[in-house]
Amino acid sequence: QLSSRIRAIPEPAGNAWEIYERAQEMRTEGIDVTMLSIGDHDTITPEPIIAHMAGAARQGNTGYASVPGMAPLRAAIAERATLRTGAAAVAGNVFVTPGGQFALFEALMAVTDPGDKVVMIDPYYATYPITIRAAGAAPVIVKADPDNGFQPDLQDMAAKLPGCRALLLNTPNNPTGAVYSRDTLNAIAELCQAHDVWLISDEVYDGQIWEGEHLSPRGLPGMAERTIVIGSMSKSHIMTGFRLGWVLAPEQVVNAIWELAIATTYGVPGFIQEAACFALTEGDAIEAEATARYRSRRDLAVDVLRGANGLRLSAPQGAMYVMVDIRPTGLSGIAFARKLLEEHHIAVMPGEGFGQAAAGHLRVSLTLEDDALVAALRTLAGLAGA
Ligand code: PLP
């Protein structure tokens, strides 16, 4: 029999991957499917980053690399974190990981014991329940109401947080595009302090802000010592396949993760680290260009979808997705997504894959160039009225 840790891992919610898998299958059958279902870019990593990676490998950086991350990269991440979280960070607060996803897992492994409860907000990034379970902990769900801009229900949180070990937060949010306000974050910070809870703050979309400002709970009074920030190069610098992320945490957590890394990854490849270091220190224009592209696509999507055929939309305040509220059609997200795929060859993610609160929604990734994106969104809106 497999371990209880593995047996506790839940099935992906609501058959969400059915659409994605069917889309892949259709592609192998030669059908031209428009993929708006996953959060990967439609362009490849910018050439200067690739050139830097290849150069580093050719110059010999192909051996075992520094396990916590090479010093200049940790320093560059600390500098970025100081600016973006509003609380001073040093290299010793940074641990480089193979992607933000592994950073999440390591953070949970470092601060939770088997059976501990971890609060997450529904709708949630699809891997959260699996990651919490794989770390041996158990998810506790707090809802974010679609009719309240997908902001977390603070009363529900206040009721459920006592006795929990950690709270997993994601702002800007995937899938909803919600960005949490200062008041919300202050209230959450107070709850974490009152109940002695670790805050794991997933900030992989921290640069993609369309309305308001990104605030990291790490920057709030008394929070730096109980906050673990998850960061990543995937979205900001079009580097999903490089698998480079980080944990930003108090040094005792960084040291714990160092032990875990010795037991698991043994570090991120040196040539990847060098590419990331280059991108962080000299790639501001690359990040600015990628961000501007998603901003203009987000504006286009809001223009096309808002009010079209009675669809409702909470315009995303951040991140690279729009959540379309199809409840007026009476169809579930899965039923609508199936129809859209079979009849129009457009793949989107049914909201049900992100939890109960996202039922009756579709998550559309803004991962297509303007004209094709507008055409796909018009088709989606047309189907809502059919
Ligand atoms: N967290 C959120 C909210 C995400 O949307 C993603 C990727 O889509 C990740 C973490 C993981 O990113 P990566 O492992 O590519 O750094």
Automatic annotation (TrEMBL):
GO biological processes: amino acid metabolic process
Protein name as catalogued: aspartate transaminase
The encoding gene: aruH
Pfam families on file: Aminotran_1_2
Cross-referenced InterPro entries: Aminotransferase_I/II_large, AspAT/PAT-like, PyrdxlP-dep_Trfase, PyrdxlP-dep_Trfase_major
Domain Aminotransferase class I/classII large: 32-377
Reaction(s) the record says it catalyses: L-aspartate + 2-oxoglutarate = oxaloacetate + L-glutamate
Superkingdom of this protein's organism: Bacteria
EC numbers on record: 2.6.1.1
Cofactor(s) needed: pyridoxal 5'-phosphate
Keyword annotations from UniProtKB, A to Z: Aminotransferase, Pyridoxal phosphate, Pyruvate, Transferase
Taxonomic classification: Bacteria, Pseudomonadati, Pseudomonadota, Alphaproteobacteria, Rhodobacterales
Molecular-function GO terms, alphabetical: L-aspartate:2-oxoglutarate aminotransferase activity; pyridoxal phosphate binding
Coiled-coil zones: none
Family to which the UniProt record says this protein belongs: Belongs to the class-I pyridoxal-phosphate-dependent aminotransferase family.
